[in-house]
Amino acid sequence: MADLRADITAGHLPAGAKLPSVRDLADQYGVSRNTANKALITLKAEGLIITRHGSGAYVREAYPIRRLGPDRYARHRWQRTTIEVFATEQPKSASAQQRGHQTQDVSLVEADEAVATALGIEPGSPVYERARVMTRDGIPTHTMNSYYRPADVEGTPLVDPTPGIAGQGGGFQVLTDQGLPPHQITEDISARMPTAEETLLLDLPAGEPVVELRRTTRTAEGQVIEYARGIHSASRFTWSYTFDIPD
């Protein structure tokens, strides 16, 4: 198994390459078929291979990495639908542009404890939920559910279920037009294994974890104008921050 893992990670077995059958692997390494099968199960759990019923095991296709940092919220980016991605997590890896898109489902829901605490309202109060599934070149990469007080967004493009960015400049531009310009963002990030629903929604391979992001957006006066929760496929993103060390 170690040899197979090394060949895959080093690129000797390229993405899409078919692996030998369980019987051939057992003969090649002088082990039992049960041991060879367990090795494939382990590699699948690690996200290195996929299996296709009746066809065999294949090296998992690589997917370009998107680097996420504070610059993605810059005002000049609010209208962009193209995304820069990279061949690997290495800073100097080759980059390319991919087309981003999103579905959109808008509804009035009752605020749960986390949403209510962030927005400064009572649990159970009505809030607008803007639920999106983000894709790059047609492949799902993450979800993002944003929550707003009805008084802040009623009648704006943020409650329009049309797929794509809200209005002409995106959600932050809509809030700015409402007299609620975003000024400060807090992000809390944690990793976990996905739920069954998230695995299907994001088309995740076996063993793939997700990164959950919780975002709180405030005006310069400290008013919270949006609370959002996002679920990201761990292999398709890397978070990158550069900052001065505080005293």
> What's the oligomerization state?
single chain
Order of helices and strands: HHHEEEEEEHEEHHEHEEE
Question: Approximately how much helix is present in the residues?
Answer: 10-25%
> Termini separation (Å)?
48 Å
Mean pLDDT: 91
Question: How many strands?
Answer: 12
**What is the makeup of the main sheet?**
8 strands, antiparallel
Return the structural class: alpha+beta
Q: What is Rg?
A: 22 Å
**Spans where pLDDT lies below 50 across 5 or more residues:** none
Count of separate DSSP helical elements: 7
How much β-strand is present in the residues?
Answer: 25-35%
How would you characterize this protein structure?
With 247 residues, this protein is an alpha+beta fold. The protein is 21% helix and 33% strand. The protein is built from 7 helices and 12 strands. Strands 4, 5, 6, 7, 8, 9, 10 and 11 form an 8-stranded antiparallel β-sheet that branches.
SSE blueprint:
Layout: H1 2-9, H2 22-29, H3 33-45, E1 49-52, E2 56-59, E3 66-68, E4 82-86, E5 95-102, E6 105-110, H4 113-119, E7 126-136, E8 139-148, H5 150-153, H6 171-177, E9 184-192, H7 196-201, E10 210-218, E11 224-233, E12 237-239
Parallel strand pairs: 3-12
Antiparallel strand pairs: 1-2, 4-5, 5-7, 6-7, 7-8, 8-11, 9-10, 10-11
Helix pairs in contact: 2-3
